């Protein structure tokens, strides 16, 4: 029963700083479906986007609520968008798709209607071509997802296209994000949400462009609830409408070394934080960390899963046997899980399975199933452990305030004596304190299961991943180099090389892959160490002969001392960068060459030793040459000590790489006497 | 009936004589099959039972041992179905290294998904299962049944479908009633066993103890050296259409019937056609005008449903909505040409696939439709789904192969045009003004033809910002800044792109001691040599023949003179020709390089000669001139 109750909405108190101070009522443009003005055909992309294939003329979204057949609120979403297609690369816009979800338990998203049309200018007259019913398709992707696809007729360069649709959804906890920015420049994007007084939403806005917000409008809405076939009741519900818009937003463009483009796009999202029904009063859903944590801990697919006593209680004896140290126990449990359970490539916060037993039997599971099984066993071993919930790199940065829906995976923290370890058992090549790359999103929320408190902690990898290459070579008079090569790879470099070794059909193929694009290199007596001792650096050693690398000209021989390992190009080519450069983890690249010359050869003036530094110990590049009788030693060392660099640091990073490219290309010239 | 029972008995017999535990014990795999393999097919039973003209059943069973992580990608089961077929009776089991059953999969573990890759709509769906295990080796076994209710073609049996995978045993059995006519085509060395039995014939093909094949660089594929069988019905009934595909003539006849319905155009399109061609003098001009009309007024949208996978949508419909798939657009173009009084013929082919087998007709070999406008001397071929390619250019995937013309007299096999190395040119003229501070101003002018035009088309269509990023990546000139870049197709009817790039590099020359080193082949170096292969098994080929010409002129920096230039080089082999020449005049160095490669399929034993040839080119391409200070 819904009664008229006067209530001040508090949703707006949660507005984030990204949303600019509210504007006094501004006259916003109004667009009518089917009413295209002649001057819209003159629209051209501007500025940095002047070569864009299309322009989004406007995109209007309106969200509001109705009472559904079951008597609870449903979310209604209406969208109306119009594009001007400039050239053929924009034709893809004529194909639209809308994904609809159903949970299999009766709740679903439904498409109410969709209309679309193409407008072409022909001798000063607008010709309309409507989307016909045979251009609408429904595809059942799997048992939870349906895709509705639509295609528009008569698309030409210069066409204007338009579509509008309406969906209804039983899911009101997390509303779909509204994107103000996209792959094409947007002239105007607007979103409004009208919330009944009983719902309170939290707002998550992101992106570089500050959203404009209008003063909220209080109003009333008549809602109908049908009671059976003939009867229905009408209610008047107080509502508040908030409106956001942006004008002239450039297209968003991808760059290297970022978490996900989604972190930088201008958008807004809403998550239900509380309900306030007259009969049940104010009911907070996820407004505080203790609230969120409590709910997770009460869930059968999180807290319930961790707390299952069986089979962990018995199994743990088998795993830890007579090990007594906490560190030793932790390693045994971690190794047991990572070697027994195969990851199914899915990141999840909650488990699908109801208990660790299922996962142990299935021998495979999601990130949540694997790491919560790990936690379950660490509990059984009596080790102080915490779930740490995270948002992976691909899922984007968590805004920081209590927002449950932004997490998509979980790892574990275990305390052994004075030290704390982060554990992630989805990959056999992972170690304590070495998480999967995808998880390196800088921080996670550590959950205290006793107090239900959440605490943000850094999950950055501290020691740099180090790759060190040592050549010990002898030059003969035929310009051939003979000697040894050894490679040591730690942390993520170790993980990457272990992965490629394991993915190669056999050692021979791995060596062949290593030789690829290293013309002149021949390898024999290849030995690999610590392949399975993942806590140690991976060591590879081999004998090598190298031909075709030293060139001759008259009585001169010359070569670049970084034989195959030179940084040939600057990875940062753009003048400016708006996004941070996020390498995910700190790293070090070491290169050593020791080269003995034959009798009668002498280097002709060595390149200068130089060192370049990033400010604030952010990293450095060193290159050094020393001669000792007939032996040349050369060291090149690149250190990037931060996992991420801010856009302000971009210029110095770019300069550092410019110097790396320049210095590593310098030649050593030998004179035959 | 009797026969089917006996076959079943054989199957049961196999499973009864040894317990499964013994069967899948990894230690039972013959040693040669473990050599260089990452998985071993322990047993595959592919049995197709054709019941009558419309119904057939495939009973399929496969067991594979996954030896290592790199074999994981074959640890899955996938079968397609559509409105005319169904997949049922799915079973799957996992065994450990000893052959002990460790997991039985439930029907809920199998996924049922739609596949619409690149299509607006496609009725194909897939049932699939991915097997996951952390320890190697392990064995998976799965089985299912696929029922056809109306068929047009059957899946091919080719047991070696992966590199690094050995076959212990794979058997294909085919049961056909004597009343059902069919054809099969098999790999030459494969033996066919058959038994006649009252009303039906049973065929059997077997592949046993076949070691794994390794991937070989530039390989033309393992089809020439592995067993396979294709089976196709002579008569079929599919989505209420009856047909005969005994030969290409009949297949073409059926196709002709599907498309040869009255094709009308709306009056305004008819008027438009007449208006467009009014001043055109020749048929060629008319074709060009109408092809351009097609390109600027239609786009590719693919909807595949039942017979719609073979029958073009009506020209009138395409005229109304301005989109269609390859069949719809080809047929629309045909109708436009017909309005202009020009006759043309639909063509079906295997785009990006091998040439059609002239003596074995089947739908399985085809996947595309284009249009042929015959002329006594100058036949025009039109790819109607492309928004950009010039009239008559059908691209690498469609050229130089056997295709079928769909005529009133049935299918006719013909060859599409071949693009010769001279057609696939890259002509480049570069000037480099070197400065004493090691920087340089560079101007690059290049034109690309045919296949190389096709390779650069995507670049031309990119936004300028993306183009610049791509140029930096492709050119590999260190520390460069682009001042201008343009890509143009000067003639709408010729497959040719002109590229013009002006750039500055702060580090064009490498220093060594007090000398400067200039890599003469600035932009078109062969950077690597294909890996040597011992005992190569497969033939090889280059993707297409081409001819590259580079002329690079360097102006020396002030205060420097040429101290050394490399000698001229001339190489020739059956793979192609290569010359590089350097001349010095005043303060300029002119470097001229020509490379021409033939497109042919070469026998495996020739591979080492190709490696030699490429190595010589690699060495020639990196030669440098040395500059010294003028004293």
Notable traits:
A: about 675 residues; mainly beta; Immunoglobulin-like; C8orf32 fold; 3 domains; eight-stranded mixed beta sheet; 36 strands; B: about 625 residues; alpha+beta; about 20% helix; disordered N terminus; acyltransferase (chain B)
Describe the structure.
The complex is a heterodimer of chains A (673) and B (631). By secondary structure, chain A is mainly β. Chain A folds into three domains: 11-29 and 39-284, Sandwich (Immunoglobulin-like), CATH 2.60.40.3140; 289-458, Roll (C8orf32 fold); 465-672, Jelly Rolls. Helix content of chain A is 14%, strand content 41%. Chain A has nine helices and 36 strands. The longest helix of chain A is centred in the middle third of the chain and has 15 residues, at 326-340. Chain B is built from eleven helices and 38 strands. Helices cover 19% and strands 39% of the residues of chain B. Chain B is of the alpha+beta class and 631 residues long. In chain B, helix 6 (283-297) packs across helix 8 and helix 7 packs across helix 8 (326-339). The longest helix of chain B is centred in the N-terminal third of the chain and has 16 residues, at 2-17. Chain B is globular, with a radius of gyration of 30 Å. Chains A and B meet through strand 6, strand 7, helix 4, strand 16 and helix 8 of A and strand 6, helix 10, strand 29 and helix 11 of B.
């Amino acid at each position: 029963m819904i009664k008229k109750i006067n209530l001040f909405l508090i949703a707006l108190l949660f507005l984030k700083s990204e949303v600019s101070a509210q504007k006094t009522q501004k006259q916003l443009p109004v667009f009518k479906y089917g009413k295209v003005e002649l001057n819209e055909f003159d629209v051209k992309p501007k500025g940095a986007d002047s070569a864009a294939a299309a322009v989004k003329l406007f995109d209007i979204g309106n969200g509001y609520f109705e009472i559904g057949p079951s008597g609870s609120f449903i979310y209604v979403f209406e969208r109306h968008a119009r594009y001007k297609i400039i050239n053929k690369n924009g034709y893809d816009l004529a194909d639209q798709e809308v994904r609809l979800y159903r949970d299999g338990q009766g709740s679903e998203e439904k498409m109410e209607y969709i209309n679309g049309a193409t407008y072409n200018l022909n001798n000063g007259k607008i010709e309309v071509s409507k989307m016909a019913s045979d251009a609408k398709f429904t595809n059942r992707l799997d048992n939870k997802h349906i895709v509705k696809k639509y295609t528009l007729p008569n698309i030409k360069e210069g066409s204007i296209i338009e579509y509008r649709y309406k969906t209804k959804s039983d899911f009101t906890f997390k509303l779909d994000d509204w994107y103000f920015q996209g792959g094409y420049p947007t002239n105007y994007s607007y979103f409004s949400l009208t919330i009944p007084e009983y719902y309170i939403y939290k707002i998550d806005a992101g992106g570089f462009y500050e959203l404009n917000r209008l003063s909220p409008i209080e109003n009333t809405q008549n809602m109908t609830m049908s009671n059976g076939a003939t009867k229905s009741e009408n209610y008047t519900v107080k509502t508040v409408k908030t409106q956001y818009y942006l004008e002239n937003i450039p297209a968003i463009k991808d760059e290297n070394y970022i978490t996900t483009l989604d972190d930088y796009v201008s958008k807004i999202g809403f998550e239900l934080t509380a309900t306030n029904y007259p009969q049940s009063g104010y009911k907070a859903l996820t407004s505080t960390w203790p609230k969120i944590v409590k709910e997770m801990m009460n869930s059968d697919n999180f807290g319930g899963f961790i707390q299952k006593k069986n089979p962990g209680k018995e199994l743990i004896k088998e795993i830890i046997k007579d090990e007594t140290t906490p560190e030793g126990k932790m390693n045994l449990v971690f190794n047991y899980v990572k070697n027994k359970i195969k990851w199914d490539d899915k990141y999840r916060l909650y488990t699908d399975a109801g208990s660790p037993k299922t996962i142990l039997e299935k021998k495979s599971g999601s990130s949540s199933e694997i790491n919560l099984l790990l936690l379950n066993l660490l509990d059984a071993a009596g080790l102080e452990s915490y779930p740490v919930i995270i948002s992976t790199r691909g899922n984007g940065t968590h805004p920081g305030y209590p927002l449950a829906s932004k997490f998509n995976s979980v790892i574990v923290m275990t305390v052994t004596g004075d030290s704390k370890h982060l554990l992630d058992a989805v990959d056999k090549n992972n170690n304590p304190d070495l998480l999967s790359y995808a998880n390196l999103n800088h921080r996670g929320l550590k959950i205290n299961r006793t107090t239900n408190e959440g605490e943000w902690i850094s999950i950055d990898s501290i020691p740099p991943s180090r790759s060190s290459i040592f050549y010990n070579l002898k030059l003969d008079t035929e310009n051939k180099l003979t000697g040894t090569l050894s490679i040591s790879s730690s942390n993520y470099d170790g993980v990457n090389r272990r992965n490629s070794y394991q993915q190669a059909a056999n050692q021979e193929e791995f060596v062949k892959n290593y030789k690829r694009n290293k013309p002149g290199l021949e390898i024999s007596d290849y030995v690999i160490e610590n392949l399975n001792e993942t806590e140690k650096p991976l060591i590879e050693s081999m004998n090598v002969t190298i031909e075709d690398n030293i060139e001759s000209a008259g009585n001169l021989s010359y070569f670049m001392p970084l034989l195959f390992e030179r940084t040939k190009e600057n990875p940062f080519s753009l003048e400016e960068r708006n996004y941070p450069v996020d390498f995910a983890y700190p790293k070090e690249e070491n290169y050593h060459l020791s080269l003995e010359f034959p009798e009668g050869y002498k280097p002709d003036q060595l390149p200068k030793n130089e060192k370049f530094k990033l400010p604030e110990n952010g990293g450095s590049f060193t290159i050094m040459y020393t001669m000792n009788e007939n032996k040349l030693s050369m060291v090149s060392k690149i250190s990037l000590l931060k996992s991420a660099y801010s856009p302000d640091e971009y210029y110095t990073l770019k300069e550092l790489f410019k110097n790396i490219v320049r210095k590593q290309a310098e030649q050593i010239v030998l004179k035959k006497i | 009936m009797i026969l089917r029972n006996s076959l079943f008995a054989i199957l049961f017999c196999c499973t009864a004589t040894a317990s499964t535990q013994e069967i899948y014990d990894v230690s039972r795999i013959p040693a040669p099959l473990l050599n260089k393999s990452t998985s071993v097919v322990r047993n595959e039973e592919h049995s197709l039972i054709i019941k009558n003209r419309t119904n057939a059943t495939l009973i399929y069973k496969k067991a594979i041992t996954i030896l290592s992580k790199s074999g994981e990608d074959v640890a899955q089961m996938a079968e397609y179905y559509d409105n005319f077929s169904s997949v049922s009776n799915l079973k799957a089991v996992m065994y450990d290294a000893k052959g002990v059953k460790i997991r039985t999969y439930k029907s809920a573990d199998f996924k049922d998904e739609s596949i619409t890759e690149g299509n607006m709509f496609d009725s194909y769906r897939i049932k699939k299962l991915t097997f996951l295990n952390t320890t190697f080796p392990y064995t998976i076994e799965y089985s299912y049944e696929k029922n056809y209710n109306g068929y047009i073609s059957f899946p091919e049996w080719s047991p070696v479908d992966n590199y690094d995978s050995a076959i212990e045993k794979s058997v294909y059995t085919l049961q056909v009633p004597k009343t059902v006519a069919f054809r099969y085509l098999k790999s030459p060395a494969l033996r066919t066993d058959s038994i006649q039995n009252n009303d039906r014939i049973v065929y059997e093909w077997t592949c046993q103890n076949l070691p794994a094949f390794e991937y070989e660089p530039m390989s033309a594929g393992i089809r020439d050296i592995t067993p396979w069988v294709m089976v196709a019905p002579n008569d079929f009934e599919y989505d209420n259409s009856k047909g005969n595909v005994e030969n290409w003539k009949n297949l073409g006849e059926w196709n002709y019937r599907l498309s040869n319905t009255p094709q009308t155009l709306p009056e305004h399109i008819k008027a438009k056609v007449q208006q467009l061609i009014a001043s055109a003098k020749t048929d060629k001009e008319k074709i060009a005008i109408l092809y351009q009309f097609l390109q600027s007024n239609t786009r590719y949208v693919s909807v595949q449903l039942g017979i719609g996978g073979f029958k073009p949508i009506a020209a009138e419909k395409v005229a109304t909505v301005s989109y269609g798939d390859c069949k719809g657009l080809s047929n629309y173009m045909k109708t436009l040409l017909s309005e202009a009084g020009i006759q043309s013929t639909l063509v079906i082919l295997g785009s990006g696939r091998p040439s059609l087998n002239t003596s074995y007709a089947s739908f399985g070999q085809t996947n595309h439709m284009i249009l042929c406008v015959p002329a006594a001397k100058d036949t025009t071929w039109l790819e109607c789904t492309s928004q950009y390619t010039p009239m008559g250019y059908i691209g690498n995937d469609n050229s130089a192969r056997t295709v079928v013309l769909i005529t009133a007299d049935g299918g006719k096999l013909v060859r599409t045009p071949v693009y010769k190395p001279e057609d696939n040119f890259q002509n480049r003229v570069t000037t480099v003004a070197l400065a004493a501070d090691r920087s340089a101003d560079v101007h690059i002018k290049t034109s690309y033809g045919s296949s190389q035009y096709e390779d650069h088309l995507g670049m031309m269509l990119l936004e300028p910002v993306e183009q610049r990023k791509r140029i930096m990546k492709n050119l590999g000139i260190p520390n460069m800044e682009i001042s201008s870049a343009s890509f143009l197709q000067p003639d709408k009817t010729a497959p040719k792109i002109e590229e013009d790039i002006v750039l500055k590099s702060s580090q064009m020359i490498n220093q060594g001691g007090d000398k400067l080193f200039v890599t003469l082949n600035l932009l078109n170096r062969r950077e690597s040599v294909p890996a040597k292969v011992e005992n190569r098994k497969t033939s090889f080929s280059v993707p297409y023949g081409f001819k590259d010409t580079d002329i690079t002129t360097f102006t020396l920096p002030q205060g420097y003179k040429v101290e050394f230039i490399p000698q001229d080089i001339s190489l020739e082999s059956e793979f192609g020709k290569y010359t590089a020449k350097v001349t010095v005049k005043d303060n300029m160095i002119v470097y001229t390089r020509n490379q021409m490669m033939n497109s042919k399929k070469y026998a495996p034993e020739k591979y080492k000669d190709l490696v030699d040839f490429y190595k010589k080119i690699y060495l020639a391409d990196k030669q440098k001139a040395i500059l010294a200070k003028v004293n």
